[in-house]
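Example 4.3 (complexes with small molecules)
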Amino acid sequence: MEDKIIQIKKQALDEINKAQDLKTLEEAKNKFLSRNSEFNNLKKGMKDLTPEQRPKIGALLNQISDELTKLIEEKNEVFYTKELNERLQSEKIDITLDGNYIPQGHIHPLTQTVNEIVEIFNYLGFSLIKPELSPEVELEKYNFDLLNVPKEHPARDVQDTFYCENMENVVLRSQTSNAQARQMMNSKPPIKIISPGRVYRNESVSARKNNLFHQIEGLYVDKNVTMAQLKGVLNEFIRLYFGSSRPTRYRSSFFPFTEPSVEIDVQCIMCQGKGCPVCSNSGWLEILGAGMVDPNVLKAVGIDSDTYSGFAFGMGVERLTMLKYAIDDIRLFFNNDIRFLKQSV
Ligand code: PHE
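Answer. The structure with phenylalanine bound is encoded below.
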């Protein structure tokens, strides 16, 4: 038995000394010290020894196992440090190298305008409508009927408005004014909201028109709301949005849901009012429609038109952005050319 033990020890020492790295050292360790190793089998065989032999052999086995373990640990330490150093050498990071370039995204110019306008109206006391009161897929009822738009009105024509197939009376809203009807049916005056969003019109695309565009609707309903207040609010908005220097004009107009109605033009920034293709040679560009809420609309949504009055406005976000930054083609907003988008902050 003793001879056998000495022989295994020699073999083990031999292999451990031969090991040149962590991997071969680990293999030697498994071979000689693991549970199924020959060495361990010898320990298991102790039970067959005579009581006299047992302590001696036991002590020898323990001594050898301690010796081997210690040796392995020492070599392990050496190899570990060596391999770690090698790895650190080969993985050296050159912190003076340029980093990977991550291109920075930008807020879309239209979103930027919407944010700016919402901020201005917040400052003027208007709060943002709840999104559920301003859906893009809408019933004709809210887009037209409640807004006093007669059944035969040309805006309702399929040439002007997108109707959803196989769904009766469902349209892609042609104006954010649908939010007016929903807001008034949903809450009592005083109401003072704005509602930005997408609108859709079935028209041919050109430098001035796209069949998807954005509007911001405003609605103020309370006792004694007047046209003078409407002018005051819109003038203040124009002053804050453009800076006070931009010439504007009010023109009387007509909308089925406001009476009286106006449109506001801002001087064309491309030609400074001289006339150019962008403004159809008129020198002016229309930015919004507005007016006093028609009593018929108040009645239709259940608000007493003897007690309450209101004003409403709807502005074109693309137009306002084009006018502020001298952008001469509405399609630029939708083509997603990165060179265009990059210019915004
Ligand atoms: N909805 C109108 C349009 O799209 C604009 C408007 C809104 C006019 C509110 C008056 C009052 O042209």
